């Protein structure tokens, strides 16, 4: 009875080629070309086939353990460490953490061992909508994508908060990140200041239609938010996406951080926004080294800040106000008196910019800083004059004095003179 052989497709193809070679139907060069081997290797296989027959085609390693197998002792120690500290980690992240602990196991071998031990189960792939891919911008700093991710970042050790991100479109590098209680204009101002001080001005910022970036439909056409006004002053184009998929790089970064960063905060025993923000630079350095890619172009598109672009003046709450005839301006319930020598006639009825700085209120008119002082509520100047100079003089002097020359004198024919009292009805 002829023996039975179990062969792979590769071994079977080699057997058929060697049989044809032994019968003189093909040459060694043609067999080498068909099998993708060298002529020397074909000669070795032909010699083994002549001596052993079909057994010479079979691999000598069959039935023996692989030379690349993991040490069972090391693998057992890795599984024990994973059970102890990294039970909810994926195989990739768990293998990285085990390497830091001095336990080196390949990711795929660890994945198989975690599945066999019941620690990890592969996630079922869900069907998702197909979107047309958008090519990356070629230059670093040509476009950055911004987004906020509300999540339970501290896993119940602290209240839920949001992580704000700026991700470069060309490299997927996280340029700036900030934990904040929620997405607000002030938080995005801090994030933008962090990015600008690190890299400079990008050409465009790609965000969603959050009320921080885009006015609601109930507001007037042409209005802009505080953040949009600041980007306009910095000459940064603000683009609002119509769907989350349009800014997929920052969305995928959020999904990655909701897995990796949450576990890092747990390992570091961080339970507050302040401590998390202090830890972010260290984490982002390793994250960017792991996931960022090289841009298509070597040109850095970031632009330096100009000498007149003071971030402490631009990235603040700013509003427009109209100056009253007596040179006063109301802002947030307070009344301010402008003291601008030489500009009294020019700034009355004009619009001025009021900026809420950290040190107080700043007022500007056509780029010029105006001096001012806040008036107590009891002191409110009276506006009643034909001449602007007279109004200004009375404002500086204080209380107004009555002018007897301007009292109205009624003529005798006036109804008030003709009928001093109303007629009484008959009794």
Please give a structural write-up.
Helix content is 36%, strand content 15%. With 427 residues, it is α+β, with helices and mostly antiparallel strands. Strands 3-2-1-4-5 form a five-stranded mixed sheet, sandwiched between helices. A four-stranded antiparallel sheet has the order 6-9-10-11. Strands 7-8-12 form a three-stranded antiparallel sheet, with no helix packed on it. Helix 1 crosses helix 3 (39-52) and helix 2 (28-35) packs across helix 3.
Quick one: how many beta strands? 12
The secondary structure category is alpha+beta
CATH topology of the largest domain: Nucleotidyltransferase, domain 5
Overall pLDDT metric: 85
Number of helical segments?
Answer: 14
Could you outline the blueprint of secondary structure elements for this entry?
Layout: H1 9-22, H2 28-35, H3 39-52, H4 72-85, H5 91-100, H6 107-116, E1 144-151, E2 161-168, E3 174-180, H7 185-198, E4 204-207, H8 226-233, E5 237-240, H9 248-267, H10 273-291, H11 311-314, E6 317-322, E7 328-331, E8 334-338, H12 344-347, E9 351-357, E10 360-365, E11 368-370, E12 372-375, H13 388-397, H14 415-418
Parallel strand pairs: 1-4, 4-5
Antiparallel strand pairs: 1-2, 2-3, 6-9, 7-8, 8-12, 9-10, 10-11
């Amino acid at each position: 009875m002829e023996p039975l052989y179990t062969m792979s497709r590769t071994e079977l193809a080699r057997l058929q080629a060697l049989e044809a070679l032994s019968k003189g139907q093909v040459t060694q060069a043609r067999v080498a070309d068909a099998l993708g081997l060298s002529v020397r290797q074909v000669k070795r296989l032909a010699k083994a086939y002549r001596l052993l027959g079909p057994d010479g085609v079979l691999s000598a390693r069959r039935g023996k353990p692989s030379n690349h197998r993991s040490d069972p002792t090391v693998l057992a120690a890795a599984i024990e460490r994973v059970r102890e500290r990294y039970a909810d980690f994926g195989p990739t992240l768990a293998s990285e953490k085990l390497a830091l602990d001095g336990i080196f196991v390949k990711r795929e071998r660890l994945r198989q061992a975690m599945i066999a031990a019941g620690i990890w189960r592969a996630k079922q792939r869900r069907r998702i909508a197909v979107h047309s891919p958008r090519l990356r911008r070629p230059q670093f700093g040509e476009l950055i994508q911004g987004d906020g991710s509300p999540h339970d970042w501290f896993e119940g050790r602290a209240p839920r908060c949001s992580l704000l991100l700026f991700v470069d479109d060309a490299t997927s590098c996280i340029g700036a990140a900030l934990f904040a209680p929620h997405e607000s204009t002030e938080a995005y101002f801090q994030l933008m200041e962090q990015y600008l001080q690190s890299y400079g001005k990008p050409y465009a910022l790609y965000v969603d239609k959050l009320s921080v970036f885009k006015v609601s439909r109930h507001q007037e056409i042409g209005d802009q938010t505080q953040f949009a006004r600041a980007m306009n002053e910095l000459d940064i184009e603000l683009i609002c996406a119509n769907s989350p998929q349009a800014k997929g790089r920052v969305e995928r970064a959020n999904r990655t951080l909701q897995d990796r960063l949450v576990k890092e905060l747990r390992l570091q025993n961080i339970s507050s926004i302040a401590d998390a923000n202090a830890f972010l630079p260290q984490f982002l350095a390793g994250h960017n080294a792991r996931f960022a890619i090289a841009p298509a172009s070597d040109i850095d598109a970031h632009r330096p800040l100009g000498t007149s672009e003071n971030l402490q003046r631009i990235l603040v709450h700013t509003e427009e106000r109209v100056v009253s005839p007596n040179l006063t301006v109301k802002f947030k319930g307070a009344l301010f008196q402008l003291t601008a020598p030489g500009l009294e006639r020019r700034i009355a009825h004009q619009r001025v910019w009021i900026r809420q700085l950290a040190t107080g209120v700043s007022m500007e008119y056509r780029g010029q800083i105006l001096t001012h002082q806040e008036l107590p509520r009891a002191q409110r100047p009276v506006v009643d004059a034909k001449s602007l100079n007279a109004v200004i003089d009375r404002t500086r002097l204080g209380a107004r004095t009555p002018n007897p020359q301007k009292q109205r004198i009624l003529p005798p024919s006036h109804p008030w003179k003709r009928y001093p009292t109303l007629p009484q009805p008959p009794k």
